């Protein structure tokens, strides 16, 4: 069938008009794209969407398009998109992903973001070579959650400093094991970090912040006598039944249930984001309303260089693509999250710390006592910034995960072998 | 009355083309062939040939996105072959998997096929039950077997406890001594039905005269199986073995879902290691993982050629 020249001209004209209209619309509406983890974290989704809505209201003609992912899918998508130059304007990142900075994928935010309402330490974590690359939305401390009733039942009283000493903790593990109870209801079935919490947090107390930093940076060997002595103590606890027998296969969510429901454990070392899951309604996987949750310090170790030390870390953050065509708008969206009101919204709805300053006094109701305890412990602590799996990379990162997260706490490897393999992968001589 | 006239002669389009462009018929035929081949060829070049060649190219470079890649010669290969303990662990695991499981796959598949061939009661139901796992995806199978292997409430440990073997209850995928074998058993469960169906088809196609002649010679079932049936379906068995071997050399999905290569790299395979180095080690460099992939491609190709040659020689000997 042949088209008449007149019809052809009409069709071309219509196409040109439609193209022009589309282009005109595109010009009228600028789109800021954001890819984020937290697809199944309702309160975090609500927080970011609220910020986007506020931003759109203040910037007519600008639309924010958010795509929610699970973390692994997001990372895989970003690797491809960044390499192909197709990444979004803003995306979720964590501080250990320095490869983004090494490859010039991130825009320095120093002059774009309003830092006045951001915790300085959390900004510092994202600062490399004098430039700040990330917006530290989620922060965490590593805590030792415990079942108040169970601890009491086993005959232990924490006292005012909320901390057992080394001998008391060893005794607790023995007593709990005798009762058929795991002291720490932990599992590493689907995560590269929960298994190393106890060993590393107590090691931090043993050798202090500076040497602990050196150890993770490969400047101090694991064969250091203090480290070996400490690992031998932890090994003794592991052999005494500190962890569940199914430790290697229990997944994160299952370990939470293991702790507060079935079969129940005395304690659970976990990032302080634990409550963003545990304080959900029971039908959404939260702990029972009447669960006697407490938070205590990791045990003080004999001859510890810093028994008040604990780890703080920046978790989920947002970064801006260096290739974005709208750096000011992208930063504007981040600024929308950085207001005191939004900081308070994060605290009161997500129930986890944030790099954005909020007002914790606004937290009321049944969770208030928990946050008071958390604040009390935090106020008398010295912080080391960064988690081992965030601070180690490549072969050392892999060895840290395989050995300190899994094999060592599972009792699959001796202290001697663990030290040898970790030094081979991590120690820079 | 309408005068009948000779219809105008229709020149075939090939002749018209030939006249117009002075092309010979052979050339036109080639053009036609290429026209039809082009889409498939283009797909092959874009999605198979180019990625393979690019992987080889990458393996000699440090690849940094947004910058020109840096030629490093054989450095990645030297590092890989002389200084990478995890790679060798992955190679060992993969080789164990690729040699042990095909034998079990084919052996047990044949055994089940013989059962069905012998018309055991309920054969149709068994055939369906044994074949069903083949239809499941690795994700489903992985999750299913994670439940089965669960230390606290998994059916395997529950059964052991039920019969009084409490001390045998074990974290099957959490212990380096048992994790690889637990995964092999899982894949065996999945693929045994496929081997059974292929063997059953081969057995059903055997000429009945030969089997009847054997029966007349008082040949029992076992001897008939060993000396007549298996030799006659040998090409099928060898093909199954080589296909299974190639599949196991590239195993990734099941490991990734069930253990992620752990604990202590006891289930690390070359494929999971390549993925980890490419996407999980906080680096954008694709040079080193490309070197691992290239080495493994050559290894698999060599084995395939050896198997192919061995198969052909056997068949030649038969004739």
List the helices and strands and how they pair.
The complex is a heterodimer of chains A (about 425) and B (about 325).
Chain A: H1 5-28, E1 30-36, H2 42-58, E2 62-68, H3 71-84, E3 90-93, H4 99-102, H5 120-125, E4 127-128, E5 131-132, E6 134-135, E7 139-147, H6 148-153, H7 166-178, H8 197-217, H9 225-239, H10 252-260, E8 267-271, H11 274-278, E9 293-296, E10 309-314, E11 317-320, H12 327-337, H13 340-350, H14 368-379, E12 382-385, H15 388-391, H16 394-407, H17 415-426
Parallel strand pairs in A: 1-2, 1-3, 10-12
Antiparallel strand pairs in A: 3-11, 4-5, 6-11, 7-8, 7-9, 7-10
Helix pairs in contact in A: 2-12, 2-13, 8-9, 16-17
Chain B: H1 13-21, H2 25-59, E1 61-62, E2 70-71, H3 75-83, H4 85-117, H5 123-135, H6 138-149, H7 155-162, H8 179-204, H9 208-216, H10 221-232, H11 234-249, H12 253-258, H13 270-280, H14 287-318
Antiparallel strand pairs in B: 1-2
Note down, in words, how this protein is organized.
The complex is a heterodimer of chains A (429) and B (319). Chain A is an alpha/beta fold and 429 residues long. Chain A is 46% helix and 13% strand. Chain A has helices at residues 5-28, 42-58, 71-84, 99-102, 120-125, 148-153, 166-178, 197-217, 225-239, 252-260, 274-278, 327-337, 340-350, 368-379, 388-391, 394-407, 415-426; strands spanning 30-36, 62-68, 90-93, 127-128, 131-132, 134-135, 139-147, 267-271, 293-296, 309-314, 317-320, 382-385. In chain A, the strands form 3 sheets. A 5-stranded mixed beta sheet of chain A has the order 2-1-3-11-6, with helices on both faces. In chain A, strands 7, 8, 9, 10 and 12 form a 5-stranded mixed beta sheet that branches. Chain A has a two-stranded antiparallel sheet with strand order 4-5. The radius of gyration of chain A is 25 Å and the shape is globular. Chain A starts with a helix and ends with a helix. The mean pLDDT of chain A is 89. Chain B has 14 helices and 2 strands. A two-stranded antiparallel sheet of chain B has the order 1-2. The termini of chain B are far apart. The A-B interface holds A 75-76, 79, 82-83, 96-99, 103-105, 244-249, 393-395, 397-398, 402-403, 406-407, 410, 412-413 and B 64-66, 86, 146, 149-152, 171, 173-176, 262-265, 276, 279, 281-284.
